[in-house]
Amino acid sequence: MKKLLLSLTLGLLAFTSQQASAQVVGFVTQPAAVRGNYTIGVAASGWGASIDTITAVGQLRVLRSTGGIAIGDSLGCDTILANASSLVGKIAVVYRGACQFGLKAYGAQRAGAIGVIIINNAAAGVIDLAGGDNGVNVTIPVVMISSADGASLRPFIDGDSTVAIIGQKRGQFANDFGFTPGNLVRPMDWAVPHTAAKNPGDYDVLLGAQIVNYGTNAQTNVNLNVKIDFTDTAGTTSTVYNQSNVLAALPVDSIFSITVPSFDPSAFGRGRYLITYNTTATNLDDFDGDNVVTQSFWLTDTLYSKARLDTAGNPIFSGGVRPSDATAGPYEFGIWFYADRGHQVKVNKLKFAFVTNAGFQLINETVVGKVSQWLDIDNNNLIDPGEMIELGEGFYTYTDSLGSGSLREVNIDDISTNLPGVTLDSNGVYLFSLSYTGVQTDVFTSIDPQGNYTASADIYLQYTAPVFVAAWNPNGFGDDRVPAIVAIIEEVPDNTSVNEIRNDLNIRVFPNPVRDELNVRINAENAIGEVSYDVMDIAGRIVMSGSKMVEGMNHQMTLSVGQLQEGLYTIVMKTNKGFNTSRFVVTK
After folding, report:
1. Each residue of 258-276: b (16+ CB within 10 Å) or e?
2. In CATH, what number does 12-16+174-299 get?
3. How far apart are CA 442 and CA 439, in angstroms?
4. For residue range 33-73, what is the model confidence (pLDDT) as tens digits?
5. What's the rounded Cα separation, in Å, for the pair 131 and 49?
6. Which CATH architecture has domain 304-491?
7. pTM across the whole model
């Protein structure tokens, strides 16, 4: 398993200007009533201007069709528009529906628009935009905003009072510094079993931010303040952490990391931890949309998630994606769980959602939910063949027409016992995944585009969410696109009688899969003494057993397993101080 970076040196880390992260925005500068940054969907690669480098700044104007569903509509399905002359030098606003995105954008471009904002016609957030037949001709920035944001902006757009920036904001303001969610160091989980933080040091929360200078002026005395407000299960809120650190200078076109001391939530327990990141400097910021960002994490009895959750414990998601190398299904995707006290967690269900293109139904489409363990046998941090061991699975088939965007649950059964739920071992790396088994091009997995772990993944040295098409890609959709998967869990009682303490003994088995000889490496915090072992098959039958006296705190033994049938096995190692288990696969 990948090792956690257990401490983060308090200090300032410099990056070159080439590493200074871009910030693509959909920011309304006026009027003040709707000023702010809006979530945007962007044009897929291959069409439109790259908004990582190109920026459109201008007044918003709704375009009008010459024909279409109704003359004068704002669907933009005509390459010549009724109000073409009024769009010159403006950012055109058009609604989704009736024709391809590329056609809408191409018509606005021909009329002289410098950019296009497409308002979604679906309830669920935004999506990334395909260009269609005319996309190749579009050379201006194109983005999407949600139907809700479109509705709030529309009265001001109609009043000719709305100015916006779409694209890269670097260099647009004199004093402009800040960060995006991807620049923040936060826990690698949004909701995590509280058993992960029962004891001091179990779940160190590393904190910091990469401060970016987007403006044309250098900044001095750049301060990062991080505050954590804790709300317990009774609803009482208190500030449990408040730390700052100062960067003396932030040159133009640069990014520096500022860190603050880590936080240990074990003293506070179950509840919500709201982290507020705030940066200030000697100069007032001309762009105030990225100086304060809030993030949360939960210690909970019942949920594990990397996506944001609402107050009901449901994932927050907007739009959907599929692997770039999969034009259709089947494919598999999931979220990683790095377990230091995994034996106290039982995974019973996975909650998920798929979204589809308009008009496509999920009826009769089947999804497989899985719980697997990654055994990085050669320690190369890649998911090689045979290293992903499936522990549990379940099947869900859509039977209604409300499939797109609706939350569903799939029950997980242990494949060894056929009983509900999978109890995890200690110190393992686990994958909670979903496999879309169909072959449709209209089906996408829902994601949380705000659940961004870019900076955190580098600090914690952990992957976020992998994807499988022909092989496993451990980076999946990227650290900024988290599948909206929630594992529904329960705590396994932490019995403390001498023979039931598991965490004292650590086990590693290799090679895995194995043909003939299995090496078992064991170590403990104290002298091991007599150790006994049982090897059980998938049905729970003991197929091998033995014992040995061990001097010291570590030992390696070799077991001959060549006589065993192909399949999944569990080895249980016991001492008078405790026990632990591990799994291995026999191949022929």
Report:
1. bbbebbbbbebeebbbebe
2. 2.60.40.10
3. 9
4. 998 888 888 887 778 988 878 889 999 999 998 876 556 78
5. 12
6. Sandwich (2.60)
7. 0.74
CATH class for the domain made up of 24-168? alpha beta
Whether the pLDDT of residue 19 is over 80: the answer is no
Q: Which of 376, 391, 390 is nearest to 474 (CA)?
A: 376
Cβ atoms within 10 A of the Cβ of 407, count? 14
Residue range(s) in the chain whose domain bears CATH number 3.50.30.30: 24-168
Kindly state the average pLDDT of the residues 412-432: 85
**DSSP 8-class letter at 73:** -
One-letter amino acid at 494 equals D
Q: Which of 188-202, 412-426, 461-475 has the lowest mean pLDDT?
A: 412-426
Encoding tokens for residue 263?
């936080």
pLDDT at residue 197 greater than cutoff 50: yes
Position 370 pLDDT exceeds 50 = yes
Q: List, by residue range, all CATH 2.60.120 domains of the chain.
A: 304-491
Q: Residue 1: what pLDDT?
A: 32
Question: What is the CATH class of 498-586?
Answer: mainly beta
State the burial class of residue 496 (Cβ atoms within 10 Å of its Cβ: 0-12, 13-18, 19+): exposed
Residues 6+ apart with CB under 8 A from 32: none
Give dist(CA 43, CA 166) in Å, integer: 12
* Among 151, 166, 152, 52, residue whose Cα is nearest residue 108: 166
Say which amino acid occupies 362: L
The average pLDDT across 524-552 equals 83
Given a contact cutoff of 8 angstroms between Cβ atoms, the answer to whether 331 and 435 are in contact is yes
| Segments of the chain assigned to CATH 2.60.40.3080 | 498-586
Q: Which amino acid is at 488?
A: I
Q: Above 70 in pLDDT, residue 12?
A: no
Residue ranges matching CATH 2.60.40.10 in the chain: 12-16+174-299
Calculate the average pLDDT of the chain: 86
CB-based contact 530:575 (threshold 8 Å): yes
DSSP percent split of the chain into helix, strand, coil, nearest 5: 10, 45, 45
Please check the confidence at residue 502 and state whether its pLDDT lies above 80. Answer: no
Which residues in 398-516 belong to E strands, given as ranges? Answer: 408-411, 413-414, 422-423, 428-436, 443-448, 467-468, 472-473, 482-483, 486-491, 505-510
Taking phi first (over 0 means left), then psi (-120 to 50 degrees means alpha), and beta for anything else, what does residue 410 get? beta
> Tokens 């996975």 map to which residue?
350
pLDDT of 244 above 60:
yes
